[in-house]
Amino acid sequence: MSRSMSKFQILVQIIVIGETAMAEDRVKKYFEVWNKHDKEGVGKMFADDGSLRDWEVEVKGAQNVADANGKIFQSAPGIQIEVLKIHYSAATSTASAEILVHVNDADKTVLKVVDVIEYNDAGLISSLRAYKG
Q: The SnoaL-like domain covers which part of the protein (predicted)?
C-alpha cells in the first residue's frame, strides 16, 4: 500500500476486501446447495419476496423460486453448475457469476451463463437474473 494512504483509506480498503470475500462465499454456497439439487435449501437462500428470472421462467417468492428449481432438477437430473468467476460490487450488494451449466444430457450440453445476484441487508437473495450466451 502507498505511504500516502491515510489510516482511514486503509481501513476502508480492508473492509471492502472482507465484504467482497464474504459475498463470494455466499455466492459459492448458493451454487453448492444448487448442485446438491436441494430445492428447499435454494429457497431458504432467497428473501420471502425474492425473484428469479432466466430465459424460460420468471417467478417471485422464495417458495416459487424453490419450486422452479425443483422442476429443473427433475427435468435434468444430472445438471451441475461450474463457477468460473465471481465479480462483486459492495456499492450495490450485487454479484455477477460467470458459470457453465453442465446439463449432462446425451448431447453433453454446456450452457454459458451469467447470473446477476442481488442481496438484501440480511444477506438473502432479493433477485437472481440469469443470462444465457
A: 27-126
